[in-house]
Design goal:
Number of helices: 10
Shape: globular
Helix content: 55-70%
Number of strands: 0
Structural class: mainly alpha
Radius of gyration: 21 Å
Order of helices and strands: HHHHHHHHHH
Largest sheet: none
Oligomer: single chain
Length: about 280
């Protein structure tokens, strides 16, 4: 521990390498958790209909082993080294040569880079532990929402309580600021949702977005909510308009807001205090 305290570059490098492994696991979570939720919903519906649930093979975050969706080739340990295996295989299955999405190494690299930035910023500390847990879960939530427009309660709710737990000791904000942040985060988007629905008769966002902003408020305090909302709204609006204009995205197909909230929350985690102070200084 003394060596890690004395050598921040060493600690940052170790966090980077470990977070590559975490990013590889997050790819599994992103792919499998929505399927697990869907299977659970089907089982609950069958139970309500009085039917026996259909017998299925075990499917969770541990089993079955990862395999190529095209040919069923099981991924070996050497083919599952984060980032390096994808480069070594040139982005193709070793058996059938089917292309492997570049998103897998990108998720691993993104997770590792942001985690390393947290390690460099806070060093060997409780803040780094909390920041890593927040970063890893936000990455998983962002990509799950991008794929399915779902923000699973199994991730958002524990993360919310974990943020309040960390802030019992004022790690990122005082406990009153964190509690107010959680309440305000939820109520702000809840109010926007109902105002939009009353005005248009349509639902503008999902309840998962309320919970995700509550999570950010619980971790960072209510002061970081304006920065998070401003950044996520501006970026979301720009990308949404660009998708409609440039790639002819169907206006009736919803664009998930979770990735922008997660991105805004991460920016607020690293730079929120500086951005707020600079803004107030301008005023």
């Amino acid at each position: 521990m003394e060596l890690l305290y004395a050598q921040p570059a060493l600690f940052t490098g170790l966090v980077f390498l470990f977070s590559l492994l975490v990013g590889s696991f997050l790819n599994v979570v992103i792919h499998r958790l929505p399927k697990m939720m869907e299977a659970e919903w089907h089982a609950q519906c069958a139970e309500l209909r009085g039917e026996a649930p259909a017998a299925t093979a075990p499917f969770n975050l541990a089993v079955p082993r990862s395999a190529c969706p095209q040919c069923g080739h099981q991924i070996t340990a050497l083919e599952n080294i984060p980032l390096l295996s994808w480069l070594w295989l040139r982005g193709r299955c070793s058996s059938c040569r089917t292309s492997i999405s570049a998103r897998y190494p990108l998720v691993e690299l993104l997770t590792a880079l942001v985690s390393a930035a947290a390690a460099w910023k806070w060093g060997v500390s409780v803040q780094t532990v909390g920041a890593l847990l927040l970063i890893w879960t936000l990455v998983a939530l962002a990509f799950i929402d991008l794929d399915t427009t779902l923000l699973p309660d199994s991730l958002t709710l524990p993360l919310l309580w974990l943020g309040l737990l960390f802030n019992l000791g004022g790690v990122f904000a005082s406990l009153p600021e964190a509690v107010i942040g959680a309440m305000a985060g939820y109520l702000v988007l809840w109010s926007v949702y109902w105002l939009f629905k009353l005005a248009t008769g349509k639902e503008g966002m999902g309840y998962g977005d309320f919970k995700l902003l509550a999570v950010i408020g619980a971790w960072l305090g209510w002061q970081m909510l304006p920065v998070t909302l401003l950044l996520s709204s501006v970026v979301g609006a720009v990308i949404g308009i660009a998708m409609i204009v440039l790639v002819k995205h169907d206006r009736r197909v919803p664009i998930p807001f979770g990735p922008y909230l997660a991105g805004g929350g991460l920016v607020a985690l690293f730079f929120g205090a500086d951005l707020t102070q600079a803004y107030l200084g301008q005023l």
